[in-house]
Specification:
Layout lengths: L35 H8 L3 E12 L11 E6 L5 E7 L10 H15 L9 H10 L6 E9 L4 E7 L3 E6 L2 E5 L4 E3 L2 E2 L2 E2 L11 E6 L5 E5 L1 H4 L4 H8 L5 H16 L7 H8 L6 H5 L12 E12 L1 H14 L1
Antiparallel strand pairs: 1-13, 2-3, 3-4, 4-5, 4-10, 5-11, 6-7, 6-12, 8-9, 12-13
Helix pairs in contact: 1-9, 2-3
């Protein structure tokens, strides 16, 4: 719900490549036994995982002039770090800008990614970033950190979310945390809010070719998982995929006849049209206008140049 484009947003042309392409490109040889040490050396080198990233943020139509209240950051440190904070709009009723808390929270998290005490742990990063945030307000937040070995570590408070897509299917999704319908868990400047200890923490092993879709609730309230799969499958480029998902969420959010994930959930919680409309066969429908933040991370792997060179030289010396 708060736009960090002047601070932390990543331009749509951004790519997050940690490892440069390997210098060793082997050509077919008519005499493969000429270099017996070569295959042994390459077997010792494990590929390293990282993200190719695309981002898109579309503010709520009524907040477009202020940039909305979502904030996010992307880092190429280690395997890659993705994070979103969604400022809680209710603070505007107390003359507090809801964007300030989420923006400062993400700014602090971005600056602490390489902190030794954080130790590349998203829950500790959340704790330290929250403790360093002095703005009044609150926000839902999700942080995901990819190890180079392919382990993705996630810490989530509230209803921002993450999906892992593999071979055309959603194989993992984070469930929302909420007190009651439309009132999610949130980190806050007030004592009554949640803390890093309330975060849902999990890990998942990723493979090359997997796609990560992270978003604020503006995405998941308006786009079904099957739409996420079908949309991302149309694009090889993460930037284009992120924009397509954000555009779809915006269009669905403005469609009063669309039976959105949000309206379906509302009806399941007892919210619906008056009885006389039900008699006429009507029901509560429509998307949920909101700030929409989408981060798409495509998992790529590459050989570590330095480790490759060391393994090649070692095996050559032994041969």
């Amino acid at each position: 719900m708060a736009n960090p484009t002047s601070r932390l947003s990543i331009p749509h042309s951004h790519r997050c490549f940690l490892s440069s392409p390997p210098r060793y490109r082997l050509k077919p040889s008519s005499s493969p036994k000429k270099w017996p040490w070569l295959s042994s050396a390459l077997r010792q080198v494990r590929s390293e995982m990282s993200f190719s990233v695309g981002t898109c943020l579309i503010p709520h139509p009524e907040k477009a002039d202020r940039g909305g209240e979502d904030a996010f950051f992307v880092s190429s440190y280690n395997g890659g770090v993705l994070a979103i904070a969604d400022g809680v709009s209710g603070w505007a009723e107390q003359n507090v800008n809801p964007a300030l808390f989420s923006q400062e929270l993400m700014s602090n998290a971005s600056g602490l990614v390489m902190d030794e005490e954080v130790n590349y742990d998203p829950q500790i990063l959340m704790r330290k970033a929250h403790a360093a945030t002095s703005s009044v307000g609150s926000a839902t937040v999700i942080i995901a950190m990819l190890e180079k070995n392919g382990t993705l570590k996630i810490a989530n408070v509230g209803d921002c979310g993450l999906r892992v897509l593999r071979k055309g299917q959603v194989i993992f999704s984070t469930p929302p945390q909420e007190h009651y319908f439309d009132c999610p868990y949130q980190l806050s400047s007030e004592i009554i809010g949640q803390t890093y200890l309330d975060a849902m923490v999990c890990t998942i092993e990723l493979m090359e070719g997997d796609t990560i879709v992270m978003g604020s609730d503006g995405l998941f309230d308006n786009v079904f998982d099957h739409e996420i799969v079908s949309t991302t499958s149309r694009f090889k480029d993460a930037v284009e995929a992120a924009k397509a998902l954000a555009d779809l969420a915006r269009d669905n959010s403005m469609d009063v006849s669309f039976d959105s994930p949000y309206s379906i959930e509302a009806r399941s919680r007892g919210f619906d049209v008056p009885l006389w409309k039900k008699i006429l066969g009507r029901k509560l429908t429509g998307g949920k206008p909101d700030d929409i933040t989408v981060i798409v991370g495509q998992v790529i792997s590459s050989l570590n140049d330095k480790k490759t060179e060391e393994a090649l030289l070692k095996q050559k010396d032994l041969s």
